[in-house]
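REVIEWER CHECKLIST
Item 1: Sequence provided? yes
Item 2: Single chain? yes
Item 3: Sequence as submitted:
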Amino acid sequence: MKKHSLSFWPVQNLKHNIFLIFILVLGFFLRSYKLSSLPPGLTWDEAGIGYNAYSIFKTAKDEHGIFMPLTFKSFGDYKPGLYIYLTVPFVAILGLTEVAVRLPSVIAGTLAILGIYLLANSLRLRTSNKFGLLAALILAICPWHIHFSRGAWEVNVYVTFLLFAVYFFIKSLNNIKYFVPWVLLSASSILIYQGAKMLTPLIFLSLFTIYFPQLKKTLPNWLAPKINRVILVLTGLLLSILLFQNLTGPAGNRLTRLSIFGYKPELQGNKLFHNQAQLTFKMIGSRYLYHFSPEVLFYQGSVITDRGNLPKQGMLYITDAFLLLLGFTALVKLKNKKSKTLIFLLLFLSPIPASLTLAEFSTFRALFMVVPLSIITALGLDYLFKKINKIILLPILAFIVLNSILTLNIYFNHSFEDLAPQFNYGYKQAFEQINLTEEADKIVFTDVYGQPYIYYLFYNQFDPATYQAINSYIDQGVDVGKVDRVGDKIEFHQFGNGDIFSRPNTWFVGSIGNIKDDFDPSDERVQHFSEIKILNSEPVFRLVKTKE
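Item 4: Structure as written out by the authors:
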C-alpha cells in the first residue's frame, strides 16, 4: 500500500487548473450573489442557528444556558450542533447577520464542486481527468444545489461532508493517509444532520460491499497505527453519546413526530386489503418514486409549496432530462462495474430518508441526489462531445447554455414573491420600523406564524447572558415549544382590534387576522400605522403604535 502524502489539489497542467478555478469561482458567485436578500427573510431555523451561534460566541452556552451542547434544544426540535459551531466564527467576524449565518453553507456548497471533481475522477469513469471538470461544472450551476447552498441548511453541509467522505474512503483503499479524513468526515456528517443517521450508514455499507475484496486487504493496514485506533474509539464513543441523546428522551421526539411509522390512522374495511403494513408500504413507495418524477425534477417542482422548491421550475434544468438519458445509457455500458454500481446505489439510496417521513416530498432530505445526478449528467455531456457531429453539437450546446441562463435569471431576478412567504419575509422589516421610532412601553407581536421571539433576539442582537437568565421557554409537547415573552418589554401572542386601544404607548404587530381590514388607522389614539407587504400581495404584517 502506498503511503505518499495527501494531495488535495489535482496535479494537472495550467490550462486544466485554470478551468477548475473558474468553475469554483462561478460556483461561489452563484451561491453568494445577493446572499443577504435571496432567499428573502430568514427561516426560524436560520434565525435559531444564528442566535445560538451568537450565544455560544458570547457565553459558550446556548440560548437555554446549556454549556457547549452537541445537540441544541432550540425550539424543542433538538438541532444537531455542528452547523451552529461552524457559524460561530462568521458571527464573530461579521456580526449577527443573514450573511454570517448562510456563509458556512455557501462555502460548503462551493467545496462540494471540488469534491465532485475529485470523486468523478477517482471513479475512473473516463480515462481523462477532464471528465471531472464536466461533473464540477454541472454541480456548480445546478439549481437544486445552488438554492440549498444559499440558506443555512445543515443538509447542504452534510452533502459536502459525505461527498468528501466517500472520496476519501475510495482513496484510503490505496493510501492509508486518507483513513483519518474519511473517519472524521463520516462522523461529522452524522453530527450535522438528522437524516445522516440513516443515509451515511447505508452508503458506507454499500461501499464496504462493493469494495470488500480490497477492504479485506486494507483493514489491517488501517488499524496498524495506534493513532488510527484511538481516533476510531473516540469517534465511536462520541457518536454513541449523540445517538443515545437523539433516540431517547425529549430529543427523540422529532424522530417520533416525523417518522412515517408513527402514522397509524384508524383503518376501515377488510383488514386483508386495508391494514397498517399495506398503508405504510404504499406511503413509502409513493414518496420514494415521487423524487424521480419529471414534474419535480425538470419542469414544475413539487405540487407541495415549501421553501425547498424552486419557483416556476423544477429542481434541475429541463435540458438535463436529455443529458441524463444519454448519461444513463453511457453508465449502463460502462465496463467499470464497481464505479457503475456505486453511482446507481448513491442515486437510489439518496431519497430513502426523505421517503420515511410524513412529508409527501422533501427536496432537502433528498439533496444528496445531486451528486450522482451530476455525475450521470456529466456522462451524458461527455457523450455529446465525443459522439455528436460538431455541426449538430453547437446548436444543442447553445440551447443548453441559453436554458441555463434563463433558468438562473428566473431564480435570481423573479423569485422574490414566491420565496418571500416561505422564508418568513417581514420580521426584519417589522423590527426595523419599531427600532426607528420612539420607544414604547410594550411590544405585542403576533405568534400566528410561529416562533417570533427568535427574530426579536436575532435582529436586536439581544444579550445572550441576559436572555439565558430570563428565558421563558414553554414546552408544548412533541418537538415544539414556544416563548411568550422576553422580559417585561415584549409579548408574543394573539390579539384583535379590540385589544389595541386598551394599551396605550404600545406597539402591536399582527397579521391581517389580528389587525383586521375594518381597523381605523385615522383614530386619534393611533400614533403610527403601516403595512409590510410582499410586492402587491396581502400584508404580511400590520403595525400599530398607540399614543401615550
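Item 5: Key structural point noted by reviewer: The chain has 24 helices and ten strands.
Item 6: Recommendation: ____
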